[in-house]
Specification:
Elements lengths: L1 H13 L18 E3 L3 E2 L3 E6 L5 H14 L14 E6 L4 H10 L7 E3 L17 H8 L5 E7 L12 H18 L2 E7 L18 H5 L2 E8 L9 E9 L7 E12 L2 E12 L3 H13 L5 H13 L4 E2 H11 L3 H7 L5 E6 L6 E6 L31 E3 L1
Parallel strand pairs: 3-7, 3-8, 4-5, 4-6, 6-7, 14-15
Antiparallel strand pairs: 1-2, 8-9, 9-10, 10-11, 12-15, 13-14
Length: 391
């Protein structure tokens, strides 16, 4: 029997086993940042937005700041210079180099992925060659940032299937963790997603945003004057390691970087408060104008909402937020929806009411109900959130 047990023990010891680490043996480490609150080191960050809003220029501006140890838009400084590696499947290196020069980058610390060296130079495929790239980046003195433009190219399979996205992006995440550098992936918004949660608007599977620890979004905002260039906004849409709201306004400028060569750069403007969903909804509605886009869509949404019967202003605001419409957009769309707003007051200052045009508006009077706060409690100090909207 003892010999038999010994054989069993030996066989069990030769089998693979799961290694466990006890909780008190795990070293607690703070999040390290390239740009505090916006670009964590050792993690994947994604920046998304509609075409033409300057996503790549923002990424290259960030790269330039890292190479020279410059100042961030919030006034903090990037400590020390660092190496930046850039792979782009959209812009040639000459275009990116002009933008980097315009942003003041130390070009000796910029490295473009030009291909895979073997018997002959082959095209670099981020969905296949990430381990080779990691081995190359590891030899750099101070790797701080890897830019992948677009990040969807790192997916070898179907970018709309979550399992395939996770499997393909895991080498990217592992690279960031092992080398301690930030990875910034650039992507687009899916068409027809205006009003939805910005994280859900990222092209492809939701796994892109799920794997990223930080998701930034960029958008155009309508210019204040007709002859002005549109302003733009960069916003935090998701963060697992810090605040997930707020951002900065910015503009794009062209500057000459060599004889007959211009480069585009970011000019940072004022900080912004609010969630990405609120600010994007307002920005996109403003940009669409009164005759198309957000205001018109919002008017149809508002007509449908009010056709169901009375709704409190609080409920309208809640539904508008869920639908991705800023309250300012709802107010602007009211007349298009056949609605209006009136003040109805008694002895107290008038409150705002939202009423459908052509509707008969019954005066709202105090009434009593059973219970101090029950279904027939007296109305006291009614506010905009307590008012009803009549269809």
């Amino acid at each position: 029997m003892s010999a038999s047990l010994s054989d069993v023990d030996r066989a069990a010891s030769a089998m693979p086993s799961v290694r466990l680490v006890r909780g008190d043996a795990v070293k607690l480490e703070p999040v390290r940042w390239a740009w505090k609150g916006f670009l964590p080191l050792g993690m994947l960050t994604i920046i998304g937005g509609a075409p033409g809003c300057g996503k790549t220029t923002i990424a290259l501006s960030v790269a330039a700041t890292i190479t020279r140890g410059g100042a961030w838009p919030d006034g903090t400084h990037c400590t020390g210079g660092g190496d930046v590696v850039i792979w782009s499947g959209e812009d040639p290196a000459s275009v990116a180099a002009a933008r980097l020069k315009a942003a003041g980058a130390d070009m000796t610390l910029v490295h473009f992925v030009a291909g895979v060296a073997g018997d002959e130079i082959e095209t670099f495929d981020p969905g296949r060659d990430m381990p080779l790239l990691e081995a190359t980046i590891e030899r750099l003195p101070t790797p701080r940032l890897l830019i992948l433009d677009p990040i969807v190219s790192a997916v070898a399979g179907d970018s709309h299937k979550g399992a395939e996205v996770r499997r393909s992006l895991q080498p990217v995440v592992d690279l960031a963790q092992r080398l301690g550098c930030a990875v910034l992936g650039i992507t687009h918004f899916s068409k027809g997603t205006a009003g939805r949660d910005p994280v859900e608007r990222v092209t492809g599977s939701i796994a892109f945003a799920a794997l990223a620890r930080m998701v930034l979004v960029a958008a155009k905002v309508k210019a204040e004057a007709d002859d002005d260039e549109p302003r733009r906004v960069l916003l935090r849409a998701k963060s697992n390691v810090g605040p997930d709201d707020g951002g900065f306004a910015y503009a794009l400028d062209l500057v000459e970087v060599a004889h007959e060569v211009e480069g585009q750069r970011v000019r940072w403007l004022e900080p912004l408060d609010g969630t990405a969903r609120e600010l994007l909804a307002e920005a996109e509605a403003d940009l669409s104008g009164d005759d198309e886009g957000g205001a018109r869509d919002c008017a149809g949404w508002l007509r449908e909402l009010l056709s169901a019967g009375p709704a409190s202003a609080r409920e309208v605001k809640r539904c508008a937020d869920e639908a991705g419409y800023a309250w300012r957009t709802v107010q602007r769309a009211m007349r298009k929806a056949g609605a209006d707003s009136r003040r109805v007051g008694f002895s107290k200052p008038a409150e705002w009411f939202l009423v459908a045009s052509r509707a008969t508006v019954a005066p709202v009077t105090p009434h009593t109900e059973a219970g101090a706060n029950g279904a027939n409690g007296a109305i006291r100090g009614a506010t905009d959130d307590d008012v009803e909207v009549f269809a």
